[in-house]
Amino acid sequence: VKLRPHTVILKGDPAMEAAKDNSRLILKWGIVAALALFALWAGLHNGLPQTQVSFFTITVFALAIFALDLLPDALVATVLPAAYIITGVGKPGVIYAPWGSTVGWVMLGGMLFAAIMLQTGLAKRLSLWCMHLAGGSINKLLFGIVAAGYILGPAIPTMMGKAALVLVICVGICESLNIEKKTPLGEAILFAGFLSFSASRIAYLTGGGDIVMYVKT
What we know:
Layout lengths: L13 H32 L4 H19 L4 H14 L5 H4 L6 H19 L1 H13 L3 H15 L6 H18 L7 H20 L14
Helix pairs in contact: 1-2, 2-3, 5-8, 6-7, 6-8, 7-9, 8-9
């Protein structure tokens, strides 16, 4: 009896893992396309002007990419204003007007400061010092991260400034403890960092509706 050749795929087979990754990637892009098409259909169905339809479609498309982490955030944020200009949503002077204020430069400075702390190892040193103060207790560490926002609040009133400092230390803690991404412990540490600069902002009556924009951070 002649047996037909067959392929045995083991659980840890790289080919099988690559196929699963490709399937997930295709599914994510399909979700992005479906959401963008739904926004386009909803805008046209309700008789909105062309500029508003373009704005909502592009915005939903970009937010879906942000949520599913398909492309680097900096790349999407850079291309988004150009997409608004190309589709006629607004003039360049209006689209790039926020960059003429201090908000954009504060954000850019915060990201630069965070990159410097990570590259020089300062973030890891601060994270080790924080863990030493916590005495090795994860509960004390999480409480200390949240409390740090209230301590820094009067000195650093801007939300982006506190986020650049606190979240970088949270990332340093995860790297020092070799905590992998998207694990319960890693998410708890980063969520404590989020509460640190968001909850303290509300406590000092400087909070706003834009806090939800930092949830992804």
